[in-house]
Amino acid sequence: MKGETSGKKALLVIDMLNDFVRPGSPLEVPETRAILPALRRRIAKARREKELVVYVCDAHRKNDPEFARMGWPPHAVEGTPGAGVVSALAPEPGDVVVEKRTYSGFHGTPLHFLLRRYGIRSLTLSGCVTNICILYTAADAAMRGYDTMVDERFVAGLAPDTHAFALDQMERVLGVRVVRRPGKAPRR
After folding, report:
1. Is it the case that residue 2 has pLDDT exceeding 50?
2. Taking each helix axis from N to C terminus, what angle separates 160-172 and 135-143, rounded to the nearest 10 degrees?
3. Domain 2-179 CATH assignment equals 3.40.50.850
């Protein structure tokens, strides 16, 4: 399996699911639709350059305690259409899908083992939501020693202030390389 990828880099596509992307979906993040074209191009580039493409997807149980604890509406319930990756970014043969039940793509999943098996040391995080699943996955990646990058063109937040805060935290506290959209400077 190691020969199938560059052995160094992976692109994580986090929660680009119907229940976050489709208009009117339970946890709609409208900004996800704005990043779709750029993210589709980034995924194609990763495949061309033999980066491992890993879809990290919410897969909640029907009565997941997160729904009651956080007040989230039921979303991305495993086995439902809402838990599927949006068709514009559908996984292809050679891509990997990792299901998660909470914010971090590492918590309670085989993600770290999988990345180690492929010899991956460098991660680019993409998807949604910047201040939730992107931030917590970035924190766990940093604590595990991965060289981690987040390019603002490929992540979506619920609100500009929490999106900016999360990028700032990733950069200043976690040491994540944050690439800002052209014309945007980090908050100081």
Report:
1. no
2. 10
3. yes
Both tokens of 83, joined, read 């838990």
Alpha carbon 113 to chain centroid distance? 17
What's the angle, vertex CA 45, arms to CA 84 and CA 150, rounded to 5?
75
Q: Are 49 and 6 in contact (CB under 8 A)?
A: yes
Show me where the domains of the chain are located: 2-179
Give the pLDDT band (50/70/90) at residue 1: very low
User: How many percent of the chain have pLDDT more than 90?
Assistant: 85
Distance CA 149, CA 75 (A): 27
Which residues, including other chains, have CB under 8 Å from residue 58's CB and lie 6 or more apart?
Answer: 15, 17, 19, 75, 76, 83, 99, 100, 101, 133
- Return the bridge partners of 156, or none: 128
- The mean pLDDT value for 128-146 works out to 97
Contacts for 32 with CB less than 8 Å, ≥ 6 apart: 16, 20, 21, 127, 128, 156
Asked if pLDDT for residue 44 goes beyond 50, the answer is yes
- Provide the mean pLDDT of the chain: 93
